[in-house]
Write the structure tokens for this entry.
Amino acid sequence: MRTSIFALPLVVFLLAGCATSGPAITVNASPEVDLTSYQTWNFLQPLGTDRSAGFRSPLSTMLMSAMVNQMAARGLRQSDTPDLLVDFFITTQERIDVRTRPTNSVRRAHWNQGWYNTWPNYETTVRQFTEGTLLIDLIDPNRQALVAEGWAQSRIRSTEFTQQQADEVVGLIMAQMLPR
């Protein structure tokens, strides 16, 4: 799956969400693999966040920089013959949230024989939003298998994107996928 240039501004929402309440982080790892046994790593070529012709996108560059820092903090060395390969994917999805709830007011009406209560009123709220997901895959090239995947998912709130946001969201995923 490749990410188009049009998805880049939408992904910023995912990372911008880290500044407020933070994204939801989910991690799955192969139970028979000890992730702490890996010593070297590198990036899969081309990355899932690169452009369709294999050109490096600005988003890929920011995510790569964040990953270099995270792997170095865990004592892993970048190598041309790695034990572990890293890949990134970005997805966005338009979502609609519909909620209906009774209101607190019950109306009273007058009729010939006295007062009576009417049915309660209901309030419906409809919200449309974009949900973004950053997925990080860890691949063992010797086994030719995906050994772990982690993702951050959040509502997109902003179109501004910074290296600090990339560092934060990659750090959140890696803290659960490959603790120090």
Remarks:
- The CA atoms of residues 52 and 60 lie 13 Å apart.
